[in-house]
Amino acid sequence: MAATYDFPSDLLAGQEELHQVRAELLALLKRLPWSVEPLDGFSDDHGWRKVERPASPGWTPDEQAEVEKLRQRERELAVFVTCHRFWSEVTPTEKVDARMSVKHPQAPKNRDPS
């Protein structure tokens, strides 16, 4: 059975915000055109698989700024979480398990009250 850890609330909040920022960034990138700069579309069937891209209008300055803002916040949070003082209290043999526990917390199991 995996060990349980008493994570500080600021570490948990930082990890949760990191998940949220990454999800927001991923959703934004999926909505944006495939190229930052305006580019013509292309089709290439000479490789091991066919690759096609429609013409890209590029990203607007506002879209570029939003992506950069989210990437910057993602970097800040990643540094905060990975360099948190809590990790110095965890033995080297437990660090991977502890890190996975904070990254992927187990949802509480539903218990039948009857």
What would your notes on this structure say?
The two termini are 26 Å apart. The chain has helices at 9-31, 61-82, 95-103, and strands spanning 42-44, 51-53. Helix 1 runs antiparallel to helix 2. It has 114 residues and is mainly α. The chain contains 3 helices and 2 strands, in the order H-E-E-H-H. Strand 1 (42-44) and strand 2 form a beta hairpin. The protein is elongated and about 55 Å long.
Order of helices and strands: HEEHH
Query: Given the structure, what is the number of helices?
Result: 3
Ranges where pLDDT stays below 50 over 5 or more residues in a row are none
Large-scale geometry: elongated
Strand order of the largest sheet: 1-2
Relative helix content: 40-55%
The computed structural class is mainly alpha
Tally of strands: 2
Biggest beta sheet attributes: 2 strands, antiparallel
- Relative strand content: 5-15%
How widely separated are the two ends? 26 Å
Average of per-residue pLDDT values: 91
What are the key terms here?
114 residues, mainly alpha, 5% strand
Sequence-ordered SSE layout with sheet pairings:
Elements: H1 9-31, E1 42-44, E2 51-53, H2 61-82, H3 95-103
Antiparallel strand pairs: 1-2
Helix pairs in contact: 1-2
Short description:
The protein is elongated, with a radius of gyration of 21 Å. It contains three helices and two strands, in the order αββαα. With 114 residues, it is mainly alpha-helical.
